[in-house]
Design a protein that fits this description.
Length: 77
Amino acid sequence: MKIQMIIRRFAGTFVLASLVLAHYQSPDWLWFTAFVGFNLLQSSFTNFCPLEIVLKKMGVGGDCGGGDKKGEVCGSK
């Protein structure tokens, strides 16, 4: 699985979870939503994503599942 897809899923999950928590627990959880949004925005300009670094160190999403031809981009034919 591509690392960008994993990052989008994490971001979407965290935004939805914080909205649910803000609704049922405390509006202060909206600060977490703002933090996720800020990270997404800054990473679009700086190409720096903390989650990407963590995932790469864990060995998650580093390749396309193996067996790809050398130089071939993930998902291309």
